[in-house]
Amino acid sequence: MSVINGIDFEEIQVDVLKGQHFSPEYIPMRQIPAIVDGHLKLFESHAILIHLSSSFPGVASHWYPVDPSKRAKIHSILDWHHSYLRRGAAGLVSNSILLPLNGIPSNPNIVIQAEEILLRSLSKLENVWLKDERFMGGSTQPSIADLSLACQVMQLELLSEEDYHRILSPYKKVKKWIEDVRSTTKPYFDEIHEYLFESQNGIRELMATQSGKKKKKIHKQTCLQLLAPKIHEIETR
Amino acid sequence: MSVINGIDFEEIQVDVLKGQHFSPEYIPMRQIPAIVDGHLKLFESHAILIHLSSSFPGVASHWYPVDPSKRAKIHSILDWHHSYLRRGAAGLVSNSILLPLNGIPSNPNIVIQAEEILLRSLSKLENVWLKDERFMGGSTQPSIADLSLACQVMQLELLSEEDYHRILSPYKKVKKWIEDVRSTTKPYFDEIHEYLFESQNGIRELMATQSGKKKKKIHKQTCLQLLAPKIHEIETR
To answer: What Å distances lie between residue A94 and A155, B19, B86, B174, CA to CA?
Structure first.
């Protein structure tokens, strides 16, 4: 058991490669992340973040402000995330990295489209959400929208170093914001991204091999192990 | 000005074909639907529904229950909607109807994938959300999740009659639920879908023409006019 933000919880690691999310506990939705809080079984990361920050009195108000306008802004950013930043970032990483590493040729049109959506989303982050604010909730401390969107941008670390810098470099405020989310959530931000950085080198090496820079044989098993997301179920209370 | 659920509002129609959502009022997000409530400018339909039902005391509690577990369930259904039901339904209607009507050939793989996502989503609606409940919020009256998801399913009315019945027929509870949302929100549900049904015949006729059943020349302008979504900005207070 651990306690963070006044929430007692037990963290449960789920190995999706072993199909552990198909076990009876995950019926009927079979989605992770998921939490159990008393009688409530809840899935969808945004719904979980809202529940944890509104139902546990130990959670500081900057995570999910009570003020109606600030709360409405958090909701609109979280909803926008689904159709824009997530669609662009997850679409680009899946179609240019994860599928090719698993032997499925990527469709160049889909990759181009995902990158366009990503660039437009980063531009909105830079020029709208973070234009005059350190964080998205309009506070000097991060909100649940900062947490969710920053973790999405972090997934771009799986791109090649060249692509990563080409895409992210123009967005100075986005880069500073990621650093601010990281420094204000020490040591958790680094802890949850440990596995991402562990995978980064292996994935970049495999991608370089596939693009013909090296002649090393690719083992699908190695690649799957690298990609296994360390996604967790948190059992609370 | 109108008053519904104790909310005074002015409804503003936005013609997206004339690019009215690019006018200065819609900067910086250029998204509709959007509302203005005092100093708050808000976009994203789910965020708007949550704001209206939590900030106006005249709105009955079944729309957005105060109970933490019921509210958490509403949030998880709304989040799930983005990645599943909306992705399947909007993906199928766009790729099998709207793009071809605008002269862009549809990609059969994308259409098949969208239909698969839609069928899986309808199955979750039937066998999980509506298994033992008349509405999704666990009340005898609809919630904002019922409103949003029912309107998404209604978009399938733009498919051919054959496809519509092939896809929807197995889902008896979904069909009954749509009728229940419609009857409990009279006359608004029919009013907002008036334009959809007005477009339905024209679109079905054009699609039949395109598939070679008729030889009539297709005018892109006609088709664009048929597809023009009547989406509104609601100015409140």
So the answer is: 10, 33, 20, 32
Both tokens of residue B61?
Answer: 């509690």
Nearest to A148 by CA among A232, A71, A47: A47
CB A92 within 8 A of CB A132: no
Residue A2: which residues within 8 A CB-CB, separation 6 or more?
A8, A9, A10, A11
- Bridge partners of residue B91, in order along the sequence: none
3-state secondary structure of A174: helix
- SS3 readout for A47-95: HHHHHHHHHCCCCCHHHCCCCHHHHHHHHHHHHHHHHCHHHHHHHHHHH
Domain A68-228 has CATH 1.10.10.60: no
Assigned token pair, B145:
């999740």
Enumerate residues 44 to 73 of chain A having a beta carbon within 8 A of any beta carbon in chain B: 44-47, 50-51, 54-55, 68-69, 72-73
Residue range A37-53, pLDDT digits in tens: 999 999 999 999 999 99
Q: What is the CATH number of domain B2-63?
A: 3.40.30.10
* Of the candidates B126, B74, B160, the residue with the CA atom closest to the CA atom of residue A46: B74
B66 and B17 Cβ atoms separated by less than 8 Å: no
Domain boundaries defined on chain A:
2-63, 68-228
Span B222-227, mean pLDDT?
Answer: 41
Neighbours of A207 (CB within 10 A): 20
Q: Quick: pLDDT tens for A117-172.
A: 999 999 999 999 999 999 998 889 999 999 999 999 999 999 999 999 999 999 99
Answer whether B39 sits within 8 Å of A80, measured CB to CB: no
pLDDT at A177: 98
Answer whether A24 touches B (CB < 8 Å): no
CA A148 to chain centre: 6
Q: How far apart are CA A157 and CA A163, in angstroms?
A: 9
What class, spelled out in words, does domain B68-229 have in CATH? mainly alpha
d(CA B69, nearest CA chain A) in Å: 6
Mean of the per-residue pLDDT values of chain A: 87
Residue of B40, B76, B128 with shortest CB distance to A42:
B76
Q: Best interface-test mutation with A: which of B44, B55, B59, B107 has the largest number of A CBs within 10 A?
A: B44
In angstroms, the separation between the Cα of residue B100 and the nearest Cα of chain A is: 18
Whether A72 shows a pLDDT value over 80: the answer reads yes
* H or E stretch at B225: helix B220-227
